[in-house]
Design a protein that fits this description.
CATH class: Mainly Alpha
Largest sheet: 5 strands, mixed
Number of strands: 12
Strand content: 5-15%
Number of helices: 21
CATH topology: Cytochrome p450
Number of domains: 1
Oligomer: single chain
Radius of gyration: 22 Å
Bound molecules: protoporphyrin IX containing FE
Strand order of the largest sheet: 1-2-8-5-3
Distance between the termini: 64 Å
CATH superfamily: Cytochrome P450
Length: about 500
């Protein structure tokens, strides 16, 4: 097959191939981004047990993969989706069933719907300020924990219409435990995924649902509690709407209201609870943490952004009338954070049929042949190299490995093929499975950054250390491997 001749890094282990280098390097991207420079935007590497995998960062090929029904979730992602989100979740659906459910859920995530959630995001952001104001004037704090809890509050209030304080405490606790569970990424977990991946999906699903391990029991409990919380929220909203009560602005209310159109059933709504709570929490929280870290290490950039925000706040007739999309530097910082730190950096896909991917330019195979398309056999695993794509120098500039929000403002980037829904980035993926909550995440980040930077300044503590690892999502870890990113915070008002 052609794949055999696609150049790529040598493998040092039959059991692990290059998987440990890709998933557990000392720092995220240590190998991946240097392979990009050596082998280009498409290369072959070894998965576990000698299997060839393809890393694809070429924009034309990526656009095809995310838009084509020829590619479905790879085995590891499939396991994750079944365990964490359950078979009723939109992520677990395929083909027309997926399209139908997505269309039904869409009213909760349109630009207009998300704009209506702005006051809730502002309330959550003020909640962070209140926590920080309880500290002394200047102190060090773990912003990653702070953002995780804020993102959980935001998704609970905006999706379910329920403050976290009103949720079943057992659900809140298991949700937190599950978020921490992703930290258990290890060589044995990679091997376990590879072994499960060999099984046909039907047997794999049966096994996942019935294996009596502690972690799987926790995941099942979390899913059940999430569905219960979702069902309760759906019932409350249905009763309120039936009585003609004052509807609150939240995703579930909008969706329950649309049930009469026949697009969705009540269980289609409650079945999304686990997915929304988990997919909407850590992703946004970690992107925010990485962005604020970059601002903490560049005080001049931080100050310029603060001035932009304070000017906008000063000009606004009331704080909730701010139009966050009109703040150029704020949005450049958010785009640059998403570009440099795509929290899902290489979602896995598998070819559902024999197919071909076309590339934006020719590559030279190890046998000397020049090709602009690669035939793919059914079953071939492909990593959609979102992180690598977002570091291609010809597209993003010679300094693509540097955090420089100015690239979004000074016209120095080459316009490339439009792939994702936001700023030509793929951090929210693209095509039929584009992140449903991308507008939600962008507004949440805009509101929280504005609130915090207008009231506090952030610097790196002496001897600052953090490591970025892919543990289900990209996360900042401390020396001990615990999730933490500490910054010094000083009140400025
Ligand atoms: C910075 C924050 C976020 C990032 C970077 C992000 C990224 C992604 C990516 C890459 C996918 C596609 C995964 C794949 O197909 O392999 C995805 C799917 C999804 N995301 Fe997000 N996400 C974020 C925030 C959110 C939020 C806040 C919500 C909910 C309010 C959300 C809900 C979803 C849902 C429901 C899907 C599944 C879509 C489907 O399969 O049709 N995400 N997200």
């Amino acid at each position: 097959s052609t794949i055999r001749h696609v150049p790529g890094p040598p493998s040092t282990s039959w059991i692990f191939g290059n998987m440990l280098q890709l998933i557990l390097p000392p720092q995220h991207g240590d190998y991946e981004y240097s392979w990009l420079n050596i082998y280009g935007s498409v290369y072959r590497f070894k998965g576990c047990f000698g299997n060839d995998r393809l890393m694809v960062a070429d924009p034309t090929a990526l656009k095809h993969i995310v838009n084509s029904p020829d590619f479905v979730f790879g085995p590891t992602l499939d396991i994750l989706v079944q365990c964490l989100f359950g078979e009723r979740s939109v992520m677990a659906r395929e083909g027309t069933d997926h399209q139908r459910l997505r269309a039904g859920l869409n009213p909760g995530f349109t630009a207009a719907a998300v704009r209506s959630y702005q006051p809730i995001f502002e309330k959550v952001a003020q909640g962070i300020t209140e926590k920080l104001e309880h500290e002394s004037e200047s102190f060090s704090t773990d912003i990653s924990a702070l953002f995780s809890s804020a993102a959980f509050d935001a998704i609970s209030e905006v999706a379910l219409g329920c403050p976290t304080g009103n949720l079943d405490p057992k659900f809140v606790k298991t949700n937190l435990e599950v978020s921490h569970l992703t930290l258990s990424q290890s060589a044995s977990a990679i091997l376990g995924d590879a072994l499960l991946g060999i099984l046909p999906p039907y047997i794999r699903h049966k096994l996942i649902l019935n294996l009596p391990t502690k972690n799987l029991r926790l995941l099942h409990a979390q899913r059940a509690l999430a569905t219960e919380a979702g069902a309760r929220a759906v019932c409350e909203k249905r009763d309120l709407l039936a009585k003609g009560g004052d509807a609150t602005e939240d995703v579930f209310t909008l969706l329950v209201d649309s049930v009469s159109t026949g697009a969705l059933g009540f269980e289609d709504i409650s079945g999304q609870t686990s997915l929304l709570m988990l997919a909407g929490g850590e992703t946004t929280a970690n992107t925010l943490a990485f962005g604020l870290f970059e601002l903490a290490r560049d005080s001049e950039l931080q100050q310029r952004l603060r001035v932009e925000i304070q000017d906008a706040l000063g000009a606004a007739t009331n704080p909730t009338s701010i139009s966050y999309d009109n703040l150029p530097l704020l949005n450049a910082v958010i785009k640059e954070s998403l570009r440099m730190y795509p929290v899902i950096p290489f979602p896995e896909r598998v070819a559902a049929t024999n197919t071909v991917i076309h590339l934006s330019h020719e590559i030279t195979l190890t046998n000397g042949q020049r090709v602009k398309q690669i035939p793919i056999r059914k079953g071939q695993v492909i990593m959609t190299g979102i992180g690598s794509f977002q570091r291609i120098e010809e597209i993003w500039g010679r300094d693509a490995n540097k955090f420089r929000p100015g690239r979004w403002l000074d016209g120095s980037m080459r316009s490339a093929e439009a792939v994702g829904p936001f700023a030509n980035l793929l951090s929210f993926s693209g095509g039929a499975r584009t992140c449903l909550g991308w507008r939600f995440a962008v507004l949440e980040m805009q509101v929280i950054l504005c609130e915090l930077l207008s009231k506090f300044s952030f610097t790196l503590p002496a001897g600052h250390f953090h490591r970025i690892r892919f543990v289900g999502v990209l996360q900042p870890l401390d020396e001990k491997g615990d999730k933490r990113l500490s910054l010094c915070v000083k009140r400025i008002l």
